[in-house]
Amino acid sequence: MRSLFQHTAITHGVAVHVGVNFMPEQSRVDQGKWFWVYHIRLENRTGDVVQLLSRHWRITDSQGLVNIVDGEGVIGETPVLLPGETYDYVSGCPLGTPHGSMEGHYTFAREGGGQFEVAIPFFPLSAPATAD
């Protein structure tokens, strides 16, 4: 899957790059189901070893319905990033409307102690127009 990073946020020296793609082959528009795949790259620009502990997502559809998703790690992992390292993962988001958005934050820990939040940039979910 080709993914360009369209959105970036940098918080406390950790960069979060996001690329998102609508997936028509995994969507069921006739059933009111749209699906996107997003590619995240985490980049440790600090001088510290950091570990991703948890995620907090705010997913909003075009009708204003908000779904909050909290959980440990990402895709079952809690990656440790040395200074200068990156970590990539791919996940997906279904919606009951053709448009919406996602944003949130990760909670990281520094190797010497202390936790901090890293912003996940706001990014739109937008399906192309379909003919009726």
TrEMBL record:
- Report the SUPFAM superfamilies cross-referenced here: ApaG-like
Q: Which domain of life is it from?
A: Bacteria
Gene3D superfamilies documented for this protein: ApaG domain
Q: Where is the ApaG domain?
A: 8-132
Name of the featured protein: Co2+/Mg2+ efflux protein ApaG
Encoding gene per record = apaG
